[in-house]
Amino acid sequence: MSTQPSKTLETFPNPFPDRDYTIHMTIPEFTCLCPKTGQPDFATITLDFVPDQLCVELKSLKTYMWSFREEGGFHEAMTNGILNDLVAAISPRFMRVTGEWNVRGGIYTNVVVEHRQPGWTPAPKIDLP
What does the domain layout of the chain look like in residue ranges? Predict the structure, then answer.
């Protein structure tokens, strides 16, 4: 197999660094291991972010997400760790990572974590009729 899991997140320059815009990504096949039983955990991870100078490259994001497949961790730790790694790689103006975790023990868990660059505020929301 030519592609392997990797914790390396590659980046590229934001083509419009003077403009706030949102990038929305859905990763529906995230897997890791339950830290208590070792059984697989499944989640949909959603990324919403306003880039600053850098964007994350998609193939490296795919292999990064794949790197968790044999790793154990609680839902909260996994979701927060993904946010920390992405913020360290691209320093976005804003980022939200949502982990929608499949049922475990009859309970569905959603974990939502956010980062805001100091001093950054979003433009006011505009509702059009």
Answer: 20-116
